Amino acid sequence: MLSWLKKHKSWVLIITGSAVWSATMVKSGWVYSYGMGFWGPNGHDGIWHLAIINSLSQFRWDMPIFAGELLKNYHLGFDLFLAIIHKLTSIPISNLYFQISPPIFALAIGWLTYKLVLAWKQSESAALWAVFFTYFGGSLGWVLGKGESTFWSQQAISTLINPPFALSLVLLLLGLLLLLRRRLFLAILVFAVLPQIKIYGGLLAFGGLLIAGLKDRSLLKVLLISAALYFLSSYKLLTTGSSLLVWQPGWYLETMMSYSDRIGWTKFYSAMTNYRLGEQWPKAILAYGVAFGIFWVGNMGTRLIAIKRIKRLSELSWEEIFMATVIVAGIVIPMFFLQRGTPWNTIQFFYYSLFFSGILAGIVMSQIKNNFTKIIIILLTIPTVFGTLKHYLPARPPAKLSHEELEALSFLSRQPRGVVLTYPFDKSAADAAIPTPPRPLALYESTAYVAAFSGQPVYLEDEVNLNITGYDWPSRRRQVLDFFASSDLASAKSFLDANSIKYLYLWDVDVARPGFSDTQLGLRNVFENSQVAIWAKTSPQP
Q: What pLDDT does 533 receive?
């Protein structure tokens, strides 16, 4: 047995790491005694992807949570990939998203990391240690008794809760491996697709190819052709009239110091911002420099040993130049720019910095001869993994979709296609709800769950992602609230007709009802149980 484990130690490590990663996903989307459960951010982010995948699998390119508008400002490569797999296999979308794709992506990332470093360094030890840091690299949040994102960035253990990011790592590693083997044509195709999967990774990869191209000119050809193919294929999705990035230097450092769920050193935050506002630049530069040092060291954790790879530019290989460019750009961009509407999204640039730092840390680790030092580094690396898993392993999740709602949404999915109106997310009602988990999705966050599980376009849902993608959802929300509060029957009927509303999905039938009956509005009650009523303009389908 020991000889077998030694012979296959690469696969033992890859399978172990993949199993640990997959624990963050595979429990979500199953039906339990209380309904369908969702752990971690899957109760919001996962539902969003299910809605997009469901829509794309019907060959629809509109925005499923903002009926009547086309999808824009969103790179749908991952969702389109799963939609195609769903159409080819008929595997339920929820199972594809939560149970099937996560372990496949995890295995692919570990295997490609191993093959890349092995081909590059011709060292199995370097490859194995790179895989170790890829799976288990973590922040120092545990030192402060806090979680993985104490210093803002998610860590390796949470890779799969962002499936487009995970798939982008597969493509990044595959592209680099193809470049190493001089399969330039295939590499061009991979790097052209990458930004469609994750725009942050695509931009960083293009920057890496540009700088590394100064060392190997063939990479410039790969860059030019890949970028051209990408922009030709995606320009229609990039329709926003304003920049998605806004200048906001130091935002992550300030919020890291001020937010209670981050470091929460409010006195330090007050001092640094007052120095800046008072234009006391020497003190401000020192304070922000200290905050940046905490951000960098805190997020990097033991991956800091990667700094031993620092050399003069002329001594670096193109692979090291590529990785160094991604690492530097991944930290510089969020330090100065935020995404319009959802500022925290630009931290995703930094995810790639941590990933490639882990690979370089693995190479450095392989050169350490002292076993005691290695043991200490391992012990300081893995606490983040165990600290994060406790959020995904409890028997009861924070969010659920009850059996009654699953029944209602299943019924709605069998009806002719039509726009669904539902009551907008009510934060005050959610805050007042009993905190005992699991909480109904309707009282958890503004999510896309009606679109996700009915396959029908919804007039207004998931305001978070509408904000990210740049839709004017506040005005539509006001219209919906006015409809539910209206005492003018003609105005209420006019709203339904003007917006082609075909169904009303009324969760919590005792509260979220309009001021008129179904028949007054020209509708018919076609479904009702203890939690949900559905009113429709047409007779129900069996």
A: 95
Q: Which residues of 471-484 are buried (b: 16+ CB within 10 A; e: fewer)?
A: bebeebbeebeebb
Nearest to 173 by CA among 76, 123, 106: 106
Q: Are 246 and 81 spatial neighbours (Cβ–Cβ below 8 Å)?
A: no
Helix (H, G, I), strand (E, B) or coil at 243: coil
Query: Does the structure show a pLDDT above 90 at 113?
Result: yes
Average pLDDT over residues 261-286: 95
User: How is the beta sheet containing 35-38 ordered, strand by strand?
Assistant: 31-32, 35-38, 399-401, 439-440
To which H or E segment does residue 479 belong? helix 473-485
Token couple for 173: 């590693």
User: Tens digits of per-residue pLDDT, 392-426?
Assistant: 888 899 999 999 999 999 999 999 999 999 999 98
Strand partners, 440: 400
Distances (CA, A) of 235 to 112, 165, 228, 271: 31, 21, 11, 44
State yes or no: pLDDT of 430 exceeds 60. Answer: yes
pTM given for the model: 0.94
Sign of CA dihedral 138, 139, 140, 141: negative
Instruction: Check pLDDT > 50 for residue 240.
Output: no
Sequence-ordered alpha helix ranges (H) in 1-98:
2-7, 9-22, 45-57, 77-89, 93-95
Report the interhelical angle of 199-212 vs 348-366 (nearest 10°). Answer: 50
Q: Can the peptide bond before residue 343 be classed as cis, meaning omega within 30 degrees of 0?
A: no
Are 481 and 445 a contacting pair, CB within 8 Å? no
Which residue carries 């924070």 as its tokens? 398
Angle at 310 between CA 324 and CA 13, to 5 degrees: 70
Count the helix, strand and coil residues of the chain and give each as a percent rounded to the nearest 5.
60, 10, 30
pLDDT by residue (tens digit) across 276-297? 999 999 999 999 999 999 999 9
Helix segments in 30-151, DSSP class H: 45-57, 77-89, 93-95, 101-121, 124-136
Q: Which two tokens stand for residue 72?
A: 């824009």
Residue 21: name the closest of 142, 225, 169 by CA: 169
